[in-house]
Amino acid sequence: MKKLALIALGFIFSINAHSAIIYTDTTAVTTTGQTYSSIASISGEYSSVFLELTAKGDYTGPTSPQEYIEFYLDGNLLLKWDAATVSPSVSVTVNSAPFDYTISGIVEISDSLWDSLVSDNELVISWVNGPGVNSASVTGPDFVSFSLNGIISDSEPTDTDVSEPTHMIFFSLCMVVFALRRSRMFFKQ
Question: Can you tell me the distance from the alpha carbon of 25 to that of 135, in angstroms, rounded to the nearest whole number?
Answer without folding.
Answer: 19
